[in-house]
Write a structure and sequence with these properties.
By secondary structure, the chain is of the alpha/beta class. It has 2 domains: 3-95, no CATH class; 101-250, Rossmann fold (3-Layer(aba) Sandwich), CATH 3.40.50.2000. It has helices at 15-22, 36-42, 57-61, 81-87, 127-136, 151-160, 174-179, 195-202, 226-234, 240-250, 253-263, and strands at residues 3-6, 28-31, 50-55, 75-78, 92-94, 114-118, 141-145, 165-169, 183-186, 206-210, 222-223.
Length: 265
């Protein structure tokens, strides 16, 4: 079976070339996103035997997902059970994000004072929650690594003048960032199956995850209030090796992709 894995996501601008020159040579097209390219494919005659795609958080909340004819897709995968249940697609199936563990080197971590938010600065990432937590924990350092895609939120951070919040910009060497931190924080109200936490835990960081929509049992523990988040960070319990093992058990690419290939036979 010959698979074509389209992982460029929202940049599926070369679809005409694919249709005319490449896709007919493949048995299965797998798109990592339910985006404009998938919408385009769903409105035209199939050019390979099977189509499959993922619906993630971005696509569910975007109106584009509603315009896709999913009947043209033999398999529709979800990384978030709540989103799957609310899409109401009979062919929907859970298939979580997967990472190549060889790309994220484990290093034993310990309690410390550096908290990482690996996310763009925008309204989806719960920046006000981070600010509340930072103000409650002035003895800790909160590092935001990501692009500033919402200038209003960036101005909000500057206006608040927090002395312990640092907007670092895009990280070209994410492994170096993971190795220099103690905790990986998530403050988003909505996510699919966030890779930032998966990758951070694989590197040995303790996850401090806000209970987002559809989180279920994706990670070992969550917080609902600022007090609970603070308690997770300040407590002595820190099990770096167990965080890595959690990812090995649930999100190892070499365990998940054979299942995917078998599913598409």
């Amino acid at each position: 079976m010959k698979l074509y894995f389209e992982s460029k996501g929202h940049e599926f601008t070369h679809r005409n070339k694919l249709i005319s020159k490449e896709l007919q040579d493949y048995d299965v097209l797998i798109s990592g996103w339910a985006d404009e390219g998938v919408k385009w494919l769903s409105r035209h005659e199939k050019v390979c035997r099977k189509y499959a795609c993922w619906v993630r958080s971005y696509e569910y909340w975007h109106t584009n997902a509603e315009k896709i004819d999913y009947s043209k897709f033999d398999k529709v995968y979800f990384v978030n059970k709540w989103i799957m249940d609310n899409m109401g697609l009979p062919q929907g199936k859970m298939m979580p994000n997967a990472i190549n563990l060889d790309e994220f080197k484990f290093k034993e971590k310990n309690p410390g004072k550096d908290v990482l938010l690996l996310a763009d600065v925008n309204f989806k990432k719960g920046i006000p929650l981070l600010m509340q937590l930072a103000k409650k924990m002035p003895d800790y350092h909160f590092h935001i690594f990501g692009n500033v895609t919402d200038k209003r939120l960036f101005e909000y951070i500057r206006y608040s003048e927090p002395s312990n919040v640092y907007v670092r910009g895009y990280a070209s060497d994410v492994q170096y960032v993971f190795d220099s931190m103690n905790y990986i924080l998530l403050t988003s109200p909505v996510e699919g199956n966030p890779n930032c936490i998966i990758e951070g835990m694989a590197s040995g960081l303790k996850p401090v995850v806000h209970r987002f929509v559809g989180s279920n049992e994706q990670f070992p523990f969550y917080w609902d209030t600022i007090d609970e988040a603070e308690a997770l960070i300040r407590e002595d319990k820190y099990e770096s090796l167990n965080y890595r093992k959690w990812i090995e058990d649930k999100y190892d690419m070499w365990k998940i992709y054979p299942e995917l290939e078998k599913d598409l036979l």
